[in-house]
């Protein structure tokens, strides 16, 4: 009997030790997962940036080739001097370099913005917040159950900390405009003051915009609220997982439009 009791004690100690080892291992794995997610977000942003730069370079080459062909044609038809032809080519090259520099600067800022936001989010927040850079635009997608009260457009208390971190990023990057876009699944809704999913998506976007303005002081001139109802799904609505993914609010951060209009104004005028 004494021997049996001793075996039980040793077995209990071994189980506690194994449990503690499992806890430590789980803690390490969780930490490694967080690091991996941050590295993946940065890598994705960098890959997107490189793809955009490659596309821009290809477009620049095509633009240069077209400019050269046109200049050669003008030179042949109008006896344009070689010096003038060289000037036209140099002017086109300078404009192309300017476009590439601006695009490269924008891509770099987007990467920094994305990395700063990702690092500021907790592990729990990263499960419900997706940050991506697509075609030079930063998309922050938030699940509806972390933002709103169920079936409502009112911001819940749980969302305050996450929105404060996003607001800080928006405030730090003053040269960007912000579009808040609401999206729903295809399940019909009809409640007091909410006629359908169009209403719900617009009201939710408006709630986030006003929250950013009143709680965190984001300049309302930089903010736009919009709703797309059920008509911009990213997954199937045939199962609950897909519906949950479609019920989201996107905060879209883009360079200000007037900056690109300035670039257009600086384009070299074509010779008649």
Strand order of the largest sheet: 1-2-5-3-4
How many DSSP-defined strands?
5
The whole-angstrom Rg is: 27 Å
Q: Identify the overall geometry.
A: extended
Number of helices: 8
Proportion of beta-strand residues: 5-15%
Structural class: alpha+beta
Most strands sheet? 5 strands, mixed
Uncertain regions spanning at least 5 consecutive residues: 2-10
Q: Kindly report the average pLDDT value.
A: 78
The helix-strand sequence is: HHHEEHHEHEHEH
In whole angstroms, how far apart are the ends?
Answer: 107 Å
Descriptors:
single chain, 272 residues, alpha+beta, five-stranded mixed sheet, 8 helices, 5 strands, 64% helix, extended, disordered N terminus
Could you characterize what this model shows?
- By secondary structure, the chain is an alpha+beta fold.
- It contains eight helices and five strands.
- It has helices at 2-78, 82-120, 123-126, 144-147, 160-172, 197-216, 240-246, 257-265, and strands at 129-134, 137-143, 176-183, 223-227, 248-255.
- A five-stranded mixed β-sheet has the order 1-2-5-3-4.
- The longest helix is centred in the N-terminal third of the chain and has 77 residues, at 2-78.
- It starts with a helix and ends in a 7-residue tail after the last helix.
